[in-house]
Structure to design on (217 residues):
């Protein structure tokens, strides 16, 4: 199994330096990862550096809490698009889902999906599965699929736990038969862990330890 093209090579640390961003970019180019995933500030730099390669630029939106207003999430997405982003990973409104306000969660997701798709960009929806019940994971996954999201994603990597095989299996079952795929992200540190997520139904992986996962470090 060639893992390289599953991987969104990720650096979202608040103290990430320009030198570290440069390193991640070069690693992604050298190893043909799918994307370089960064915070919105770095999108312009990453996009310019990846020109002419088989790696694309990705960033997070409403990160890491998902509690921004919809207007701000859309504006942040549009700014990233103007700066050259190819894929957008938005954090859904977790508190509103847990409040049972599914209509508000769905509208928030739909607005960002629309902004992305109008510019022909990939949109992923981060659920933060460690904070959700199995039923809430199912509901949120179905909402993302109903909104036309390209992926539903497990985690930010900034909460109490990252991706689990159990959560990926629930998400995969919830979106089965739709155009929406599953991304496992957070806490994937080895080839075995990556392969377990793929076996559970993930077709994309968010990884900050990508070199270890592909067996090069």
């Amino acid at each position: 199994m060639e893992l390289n093209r599953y991987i969104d090579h990720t650096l979202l640390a608040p103290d990430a330096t320009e030198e570290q961003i440069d390193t991640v970019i070069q690693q992604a180019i050298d190893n043909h990862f799918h994307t370089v995933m960064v915070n919105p500030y770095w999108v312009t730099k990453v996009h310019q550096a990846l020109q002419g390669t088989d790696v694309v630029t990705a960033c997070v939106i409403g990160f890491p809490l998902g509690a921004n207003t919809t207007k701000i999430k859309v504006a942040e997405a549009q700014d990233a698009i103007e700066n050259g982003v190819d894929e957008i990973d938005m954090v859904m409104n977790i508190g509103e889902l847990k409040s049972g306000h599914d209509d508000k969660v769905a509208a928030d997701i739909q607005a960002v999906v629309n902004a992305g798709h109008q510019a022909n960009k990939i949109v992923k929806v981060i659920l933060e599965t460690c904070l959700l019940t199995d039923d809430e994971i199912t509901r949120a996954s179905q909402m993302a699929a109903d909104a036309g999201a390209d992926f539903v994603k497990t985690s930010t990597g900034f909460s109490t736990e990252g991706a689990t095989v159990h959560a990926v299996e629930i998400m995969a079952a919830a979106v089965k038969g739709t155009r929406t795929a599953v991304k496992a992200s957070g806490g994937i540190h080895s080839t075995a862990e990556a392969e377990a997520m793929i076996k559970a139904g993930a077709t994309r992986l968010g990884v900050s330890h990508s070199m270890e996962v592909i067996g090069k470090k």
About this structure: Residues 102-118 form the longest helix (17 residues).
